[in-house]
Specification:
The protein contains 14 helices and no strands. The protein is mostly helical. The protein has 3 domains: 65 residues, no CATH class; 100 residues; 108 residues, Receptor-associated Protein, CATH 1.20.81.
Amino acid sequence: MSRKQLDDLGVSAFCESMAMMVQSGIMTDEAISLLQSESREGGILEQGLSGMKTMTEQGATLADAMESAEIFPDFAVKMIRVGESSGRLENVLFRLSHYYAGQKTLSEKLRGAVTYPAAMLVLIIAVLSVMLAIVLPAFRGVYDRLTGSLAASSYAYIRWAGVFCTVALILMALLALALVVGLLLWKSGKRAPVLAVLEKFPRIRAILETNALYRFTSALGTYLASGEMQDEAVQASIPLCGSEKLEEKLRSLSARMEEGHSFAQAAYDEELFEPVYGRMLLAGERSGGLEDVLARLTQLLEEDGAHQVDRLVEIVSPALSGILMVTVALTLISVMLPLIGMMNSIG
């Protein structure tokens, strides 16, 4: 039975630690032994390192030991295997560290973008439920003791307030239900219908496109750092982007490369990146610094994606807060107006 895998942050930390020790000239088995002595007892990494140490001491490669431990993603194992065979292990380990650190940052940003609106929805539903179950019936009880035209008009106010709260509660409950269903589908791996709905919103579609391009670019840079050829690296990176729309464009780009175009030229022709980024790639490829340009481009895409998520939260959060305040304010005004009328008539 497979063990529980390390999360992105754990993989990033492992790769960075191994990279620094490899850079210092420490042998693989000794490096793993040092990591084992520093890891938390009983943790996932400590359990995996125990078996890895035995294998590397017997002459196994780092990739074989990681595969046997069953706690590392297949992508990381594959990259390290290629890096070992090409003699670029140190470079690959550093790239993998950046890659998984970026994935962790991205996932936390997206989780935060969902958590706050979800909490606001729960708060709105709770407030509306209290208004319908306690506040409005309390005022209705007060007006039940009154007679005459004032009481009749009061019931009209109460009725409209109840209708308003009920409609708002139903809408918020449906929105919360859609959010729960979407999260369940996402976690179960059935992401296509969720993405189809999300892509109907321009701002969310822009975030998804930027993040998909970031994942592709990051994976491509890691493949190239391992010594893979450009065409093979592009082909291997396509499934990692997580977007069918982008995959279609990337397959077209790959077809251009099969015709003899370089990656940078094919990407520029297919308008994969914004023109300024496309020219950066062309200049980097012609000067022999494509990997460095890809690393910089990956960083820019990560920052752009995070900024877009922040802007979306800045729009959604005030909107939900506004709905809550408007709903409560209109309801309270509706039930307080008759009391104001009574106080004026008494005075």
